[in-house]
Amino acid sequence: MFLDWIAQLHLLQHDAQTNILNVLPVSTRRTLISEITSYLHPAAGKAAPHPSIFSSPAHVKWFMEVIGQGFNLPLEDMTITSEDINIYAQWLFEANQRPAAVSREGLEQEFFQIIFHQYSLLFRPRVPRPHSGASKTATYTTTTVVPAPGAANLITIPMAAPSPPPITRETAAQLTQRHIELCKKVLTVFTMAGRTLDLSEETWSVLLKVVLGITDSLLSERVSDGTRNGPVMGDELCDHLLRVLFELWLRSKTRDVEMWDIIKRCFVRWTHRPKVIQQWSSVALSLTHRTLRFLYGPTAGTSVVNIAVNGFNVKLDLPQDFVYYAWHRILFLIPNPWQLSPGNFALAVMGVGRIVEAFHSVGQVPLPDSETPSPPDGNTLLHIFGGWLFDACFSAPQVSAEYQQGRAEAYGILCRIFSKPQRRVPFLRLYIERFYAALAIGLRSDTCLPTILMNSTELFATDLEGVRLMVPDFVVGIKSILPKMQPEYRNVISVDELRLAAIKVTSTIMCLPNHFENVSLKPDWDRGLNVASDNVSMIGEQEQLVSQLMKVLYAQQSSQQPAFTSLKYYILELLLMSLRTETSSYNMRYLLHLINVYVVEDVPFCPGLVGTVVKLIQDKILTMQLSSDVTLVAFDVLMDFVGLYEYVKRDSKNVARELVLALCRYADTLNSTGNLAQKYPLVVQAYDCMMRWVMVGQWIVDDRDCQHAVIATLSRGITIFEREIETNSQLEGSQEKKKRRDTGFPPTKQLFQLPNRASKGGSGNQSNDTDKATSATNKNGMAMHRKEEIAVKMAAEYCMSQFVNQLGNFPPWKDQVGPTRTSTLLDDLSMIKAWKKSKSSNAISDEEGAVAKRIQLFLLDGRVIAGLMDISDLVETHGESPKSPAIVLICRDTTGRYSWTSCLRYEDLSSKVSPATPRSSSSTSSSPKYNPNLLVRAGSSPTLNNGHLVKSNASIPVADAVNWMALPSLEQLLIGKPEKKAELERMTEITTLQQHAEQEIDHHDPLQIPKAAPESSHSPIDQTPSERLFMSQLGFLHTKNRNNVIPLSITDSLISELEMLDMLNERDCISISTYFAQSGNATEKELVEQPPELSQSYLQFLYSLGWPVKLSEHHGYQGKVDSAICDVIPYYADRMVEVVFHNPYFLHEPKEGDLSWGAVSRLPKLHQQVTQDDHVCIIWIEDMTNWESLAHRIKTMNSVNSKSMVYIFINPLVGAVDGLYWIRISIPSVGNNPASIVASQRLKENALIFGPLVDGMIVSRHALGAMVRNTAISAHQACRVVTDSFTRPYVIRKHFIEEMAHRHSSKSSLSEFYSDIFVQR
């Protein structure tokens, strides 16, 4: 006795010995069933009969015949039915409550089968009694059952029922719902029976056939359209039936081919229901995951079959061979998805997509100390699903939105499959051709294009044969999204996400036209191309001008067959126009990075490109409508373009000037608004960008107007503290002017007063005083400024220092060190130490003979430390006598350390400069000659003046000694006495001068008037105060400067402070790690100690990052390496930064006996110590297998204090073209402590703050080195920002000098001030 539908499916055959009570009237059956049920399952408090009452199997079957009829009762009698369900459930799961005869005779399996049969009767749909019909006589109703396919005739079952009392519609719905709940209860019993009972194979077969028959009888019906009253059993039980059916089917582990064929035939009749497709998708996916675990090991798939649907999870532990069999059979239960209804077609395709993703997940988690498995080949997946997917793509489009969604999903699956690298066997050409044909259609489809773009961001990085020939079709598709999206795409997915996908795909194709310049485009490649410049309604006047300019840049000769290079115009147009139309902040930053890379890529072929892009970005910034994060990236792009100045200078000479003037206006506007709390980073960045363009080349030297604009802008920033005072005193100033007009005379104090802004030059205590005055006007009366004002002031001061110190002086001219140094190489501290030592010992050794005679240090304005060294004895005089005072001046400020040599001169240098005048060897000019006789009047007689002009006639007798030949000469007496000899030479010189003077007087006329002679200096030359003269003549020793010029005592502590100051970097000094890896599975030993053979391309790339320098001769930043462990290292420097690229392959262990590195001598330990401060790692990787895991491995192999956060991977693409590289950037959320993990997460969420390279981009060889270097520098700074460890070098130096000024400042009287100048300290 069971549901007749099961028999119609030929699953089971009716037993004629059963269902004997069905001929009785319903009332009789109800009474009999109720009494038996009450006896077997009494109410609470009454004891149930003992199982021994069932003395024989016949007795058991009679009772079960009665109970089974309880599942056929009308809806109104479901209370009895519920009790019958409980009786059978108790007999199933409580062995001690089963009839004794069943246990005694071993009839459990037959007993279970009868229960399963009779339970199926409950699932017969039935309706409540009609509303009319007051007759109390019994009537018979007939229930018509639709036969299963293959049944001959309809079956009508007579059923006696009494005339029911009238019921309401609400009551009928409640009765139906109660019926459904009882069905769910029975399904739960079925499930528990399969989980807990020990069922034989025959019993399993009965259970499966019963559940399958029940499911087919209900799910074959049409889905309710909502017009029927009350719930519908098939709709309400669909989830439960499918869940129970699939669980029991898999638990049974049946391999009966006939059973599998039957369920496949039945399943087709259910596929009109969406829940059926969802259940199939979940079961197929769970079996797929378990299959992957068996095939690929513990890192793939799941340990059990885990079926998860609508919040229900079922876990099945099935044998391996059955999992394989069931996976294949379940997978093909459904027909070809395009044969389904539109909604189910989409669900089926999405289910296929999830299965494909499961296969693609293989190998994502690497195995320790073993080879990581690779996912299955694309051909394998296409063998399984390719027919369905290609049929879906090529099927005729339909209007239904669900169908379009499914078709688009099929495109997405194919794009994901073909985007995966094939490591064993390439794709079959048949599949490739069908894929390209499908893409050509889909890229011009409104519904499929978004999905294709979303899933093709890595397509062009594969080695897929001929994939780059699809670039024109992708350009056509992208032009429908960028720069302005067509209306039909706005409701598909998120607008920002779709535009971002289009931008990402553009980043992979924008460098390709230059590589395929000789490849012709197919004739109809531009079919459906949307050209923004051709649609006047879409763009404004400015966009049209830009478009026309781009056409001029990429003008080419007309030809019948355009080449790949003609695509560059469309790519540039969509980039630049999108920058003007994009509204998403994230997308705009992404676009700016792409524009940066595109310009670097194409500028060798189109030099005028830089000027056009700079002008466009400049105009965009000046709109003042960009968000702060976008503006900062725009400034970064403009600063990167400084490296392309040679192209700018060649083609667009005014670009730099116009940009600098625009930035001046921009900074002035932000400063004048007064709202710097949120905008001050923009002002600082604008100053930085402005100075970079000012300092490049010498173009501003002859541009006085631009110089004035720059100086004025920086001066406003420097004097930002004074504005509040000026604002407050404006009213008082106007009143003062009114009084002056009345008096007619200016106040006396105004006659010689300096301008108020005496600190425009950027230094001096005058600005400090102004700061204090400004601070005094704060509301709280406290001496403090807002951080944004301080930041702007410090940035302006630094830029002004750069402007006056380094314009035209970088790299240092007449210097062999190039850009490695901005400071002098003069080691003045060693000279100071030697001088201090000689001073204390009152003697100078031969080794220290070249030290300065006097050294004095001054602190100027609290911001500059000036050292003056007297080198008069070291200056070559070329025969001059006496020697002129000479000094070396060493100045230390925020920008660095500089040295000057100065010599005191009184001669006219014009005679040396003029080519017509021969140079004199004397350092002093000759005195003008004059004739004193001209002072005597003609005809007058000479007179005597007290006998002074009378020549004496007295003489001195001379006699020769007898033995004068034996007397030693004076030279012999002075042998070995250099001091006496020098004194003799001096006396001889004086005597000779005296004799010449007397002889000249002797030749004069006695009556001649003597001429006036100048007074000669009686100061010894070795005591000439050179440093005092220098300071005095420059005005530093004026009485007003006694608080600004502080003499410093040369002590050991001061020397230590100066050494610390010299150790502070003048520029950003960055160290970056570089590695070579064959694949993501490279071990630590392969990365550091024993790398595979380095490719020539890698070495070329390494030296494109920086030029090699010998550390033994290097004067610049050298990271943490020295010549003891490294001979050569790649190095790069410009005006703002110094970079060294740590490479383990350049390291070597110290020589034996060299203890400079202590106990750290092995290469891995050396490498750890060298790279622990590197925030960025650059990895050249030949094979991208498990590339992300390599970042984690490098992080863990470094020291515990490693700071690495950003990993830039460069993958050389293989295939038909050489010179293309795929960029991947990884920021793993790992760290040594919670703070570093949080910092990594912050950076990962804001990865676009550094660039220009972004994750997934493809670049060319000629742009690779510069782009990677700029990105690494930018990433290093970003890492320090998110870790709150970034401070600009000039700020650190400024604070250190201010601290020195605070420690050494002293209030001295005027006499003490001058005493300090005269007295050596």
UniProtKB/TrEMBL annotation:
Keywords on record: GTPase activation
Signal sequence coordinates: none
Example GO BP: regulation of small GTPase mediated signal transduction
UniProt cross-references to InterPro entries, sorted A to Z: RALGAPB (IPR039930), Rap/Ran-GAP_sf (IPR035974), Rap/Ran_GAP_dom (IPR000331), RGPA/RALGAPB_N (IPR046859)
PROSITE patterns reported for this sequence: RAPGAP
Biased composition (Low complexity): 911-928
Biased composition (Polar residues): 765-780
Gene Ontology molecular function terms on file: GTPase activator activity
SUPFAM superfamilies per the UniProt record, alphabetical: Rap/Ran-GAP (SSF111347)
Region annotation Disordered: where it falls in the sequence: 729-780, 911-935
Domain Rap-GAP, chain residue ranges per copy: 1058-1300
Keyword Transmembrane helix part of the UniProt annotation: no
Protein name: Rap-GAP domain-containing protein
